[in-house]
Amino acid sequence: MMRILPTKSSRRFSMALCALTLFLGGALFVRNAAANNDAADYPAASLSAPTDPTALIARGKYLVAAADCAPCHTGPNHAPFTGGLVMQTPFGGLASPNITPDPTTGIGKWTGKQFYDALHYGIAPGHDWLIFPRFLYPAMPYTSYTKLSYADVMAIKAYLDSLAPAPVQPTPSTMRFPFNQRPVLLGWRLLFFHSGPMQMNPAWNDQMKNGAYLTEALGHCQECHTPRNFLSAMIPSKAFAGAPIDAFYAPNISSDKTQGVGGWNPADLVAYLHDEGNLVKGSPYASMGEMTHNSTSQIPVSDDQDIALYLQTATAPQQVTPPAAASDATASIARGATLYASTCSGCHGAQGAGMGPQMVPNLAGNDSVTAAYPDNVIGATLAGLTPWTAIPMPSFAAQLSDQNIADIANYVRTAWGNKGVPNATPDMVAKLRQRAGVAEKAN
Ligand code: HEC
Ligand code: HEC
Ligand code: HEC
Q: Is the per-residue pLDDT at 42 higher than 50?
């Protein structure tokens, strides 16, 4: 009988051929896509660029604040926008570049089209391995900025061009092989990257459209709040459902009424974003503290109202099943109550009420504390917090054991009417210690 099934080796060969075709075909596809300056990608929102140069730069400045470009492009001991921040990725450290208009170390020589390609397609000028466009790593959130309108990207460029050129040499990255080879990003791009523009629902009013644009494109809120798959790509069906970041957890901010922000009083959500917190829902901290400090508190309050409207009414409600309660939850909570009284209550209060919005935030009724995963209480206790307000929260990493911290977390998540699951365990604390880079208490 004739064999119609391919043999193992021919199958392997055809798979290799398929992979090669996909790879090269994909490279050409991406090249062509990047070469077309598509009129189709012009503003989805009704935002047209001002023609007056001063107004254009002012719009660019606003957009750069709403997009929070500065913190990532400003490393320790670096002047604003000169790069040098090393972001830790699962594949090694990635340094942000200088985006001031310096002609040699910055982007002073870039054309408008090259700049658009970087934000819209994640492609920088130049080539790798001769034929590949220079793919940017998605740590630069072009996966969200791709939704920006062409006019707005040009306004951002006009603003950056108006800054003083700063000749600051790049900080080296420490990405591991093969991830330090940019062409390996091709497969990832083909699988997971869809370029914009922003899709607006025609039924939305102007406030909702503005909120959608600020949330999805500029504020890139999904980049931290949406869970990622094993290849670090955001999972679209789980938009805003919550995700771990550093030693913290960016909670569910979907419209879900119990787990997300759908049940928040809109005024509390606006206060959280614009006034950096109140005594109802706690205050923003860790990377969210930076986000609100540099971005959402710097834009008009009407923008934050539009973000709140969009999150609370237009996003799909998401429910996440939290890990089960610790096996010794009842005993753990009892131990935690004692530790809380001696370690935390001096600042946060016996009833978790805090001391004032710009002083010490409340832990009672604070959704970031009762989120599906207990990382936030653990992360804050391990790493401490550097607020923009009166006093810092100290680190207790050296003073408390992993078990102590798990116990405190389980108490805080369930005390005073808080409805979190007491699911913190010493193992979780040990993992977060590594991420926070703090050693355990010497026993
Ligand atoms: C979450 C951090 C983060 C944010 C926010 C961010 N960037 Fe980046 N950006 C990076 C990193 C990291 C790179 C380097 C990527 C690489 O090497 O592939 C980068 C690369 C770039 C590049 C390419 C420069 C070059 O020399 O190749 C440009 C241009 C750029 N960013 C502009 C911006 C602008 C404009 C904004 C705001 C609209 C912004 N970035 C926001 C992290 C960020
Ligand atoms: C760089 C990562 C990052 C980005 C970007 C980010 N967030 Fe967050 N967010 C966090 C983290 C971490 C927390 C948990 C700490 C806290 O509550 O402050 C958080 C908490 C929140 C909370 C409080 C939720 C709760 O249950 O208490 C809200 C609301 C929120 N973010 C909204 C937003 C919005 C709106 C945007 C976009 C404009 C955004 N975030 C962008 C990391 C991020
Ligand atoms: C010296 C006073 C002080 C002590 C003691 C203290 N905290 Fe804090 N805590 C703060 C301050 C101030 C903030 C606000 C920090 C910020 O906004 O970045 C804060 C914030 C927090 C947050 C984030 C909540 C939010 O909405 O901002 C958590 C969680 C937290 N503390 C838990 C604890 C736990 C658990 C303990 C005991 C192990 C503790 N804290 C002890 C001062 C303190």
A: no
Residue 339, CA distances (Å) to 344, 409, 412 in order: 8, 10, 11
- Residue % of the chain over a pLDDT of 90: 81
Task: Please give the distance, rounded to the nearest whole angstrom, from the Cα atom of residue 302 to the centre of ligand 3.
Answer: 29
Structurally, what CATH architecture does the domain formed by 207-313 represent? Orthogonal Bundle (1.10)
- Higher confidence at residue 115 or residue 387? 115
Q: Whose CA is nearest to atom 19 of ligand 2?
A: 250
3-class SS of residue 74:
strand
Task: Give the ligand 3 atom nearest the CA of 340.
Answer: 37
**207-313 and 329-436: same fold?**
yes
Work out the pLDDT band at 367, boundaries 50, 70, 90: very high
Contacts of 368 (CB under 8 A, 6+ apart): 249, 251, 282, 285, 376
Please say if the pLDDT value at position 6 is more than 80. Answer: no
CATH superfamily of 329-436: Cytochrome c-like domain (1.10.760.10)
Atom of ligand 1 nearest to the CA of 136: 18
Would you tell me how many other CB atoms lie within 10 Å of the CB of residue 208?
17
CB 374 within 8 A of CB 382: no
**Under 8 Å between Cβ of 312 and 255:** yes
Read off the pLDDT of residues 227-251 as tens digits, 9 standing for 90 and up.
Answer: 999 989 999 999 999 999 999 999 9
Q: Which residues contact 246 (CB under 8 A, 6 or more apart)?
A: 286, 287, 379, 435, 436
Q: Are 292 and 273 in contact (CB under 8 A)?
A: yes
Least confidently predicted of 1-10, 82-91, 368-377, 409-418: 1-10
What average pLDDT score do residues 174-189 get?
95
Among 49, 99, 53, CA closest to 74: 99
Among 47, 297, 88, residue whose Cα is nearest residue 173: 88
Ligand 3 centre distance from Cα of residue 360 (Å): 7
Ligand 1 atom at shortest distance from the alpha carbon of 106 = 26
Across residues 192-199, what is the average pLDDT? 93
251 lines ligand 2 (CB under 6 A): yes
Phi, psi of 88 (to 5 degrees): -85, 120
Measured CA to CA, the distance from residue 311 to residue 180 in angstroms comes to: 36
Rounded CA separation 260/315 (Å):
10
Distance CA(406)–CA(329), nearest Å, equals 10
Domain boundaries, the chain: 47-192, 207-313, 329-436
CB–CB of 417/352 below 8 Å?
Answer: no
